[in-house]
Specification:
Elements (H helix, E strand, L loop, with lengths): L1 E3 L13 E3 L15 H8 L9 H7 L18 H33 L23 H32 L7 H8 L1 H14 L1
Antiparallel strand pairs: 1-2
Helix pairs in contact: 4-6
Family: Belongs to the pym family.
GO molecular function: RNA binding
InterPro entries: PYM1 (IPR039333), WIBG_mago-bd (IPR015362), WIBG_N_sf (IPR036348)
Length: about 200
């Protein structure tokens, strides 16, 4: 018979020597089974139908082998290639958002709010962009401001009615300030309506 010699395990212990039949092939040395279709497509270059390998070699740029996909993807399945594309798109999207954030940080550092601008929307810089251009952006911004002013006026009116009804016995300083701004808000709203 034939013997497989004793071998040492990673932990330092020894395996016994084994007796095997003639013609035995160890499991590690058994070739992986491939059906005939897999063998055929592995041997075939990846070229478009009708293109000869000689013409592809002549047309290919130097340094690139004909039949090989970019990034050495020729041996991958369709699902694996699809997953690689998804991963690449995700990486590109993440890099884009990081670049956008890097551009926003200096713009935010430049922007300041005064105490009166607390409730007003923040105006982006010219390089920040709002996605709209020219007069469209201006009218949309004015409409937004008008809506905001109407909302504030509604709140002031509700507060005034609650005070008159006696629901609020002692108004806070903020509420009194809000009531005092009523005329300024109405004036600003009229001015915006005239501009449109």
């Amino acid at each position: 018979g034939k013997y497989i010699a004793s071998t040492q395990r990673p932990d330092g212990t020894w395996r016994k020597q084994r007796r095997v039949r003639e013609g035995y092939v160890p499991q590690e040395e058994v070739p992986v089974y491939e059906n005939k279709y897999v063998k055929f497509f592995r041997s075939k270059p990846e070229l478009p139908p009708g293109l000869s390998p000689a013409a592809a070699a002549a047309a290919a740029p130097p340094g690139k082998q004909p039949g090989k996909a970019e990034g050495g993807e020729s041996g991958l399945s369709k699902a694996a290639k699809r997953n690689l594309k998804r991963k690449e798109k995700r990486k590109q999207a993440q890099e884009k958002t990081e670049r956008d954030l890097d551009g926003l940080i200096p713009a935010l550092e430049k922007a300041t709010l005064s105490p009166g601008d607390r409730d007003a929307p923040v105006q982006p810089d010219d390089d920040g962009g709002t996605g709209t251009t020219g007069t469209e952006g201006q009218t949309a911004e004015k409409n937004r401001k008008m809506k905001n002013l109407r909302k504030k006026l509604r709140q002031v009116e509700e507060l005034r009615q609650r005070l008159e009804a006696g629901e609020l016995a002692q108004p806070t300083p903020e509420q009194l300030e809000k009531l005092g701004r009523r005329k300024a808000l109405e004036e600003e709203l009229r001015e915006l309506e005239r501009e449109l």
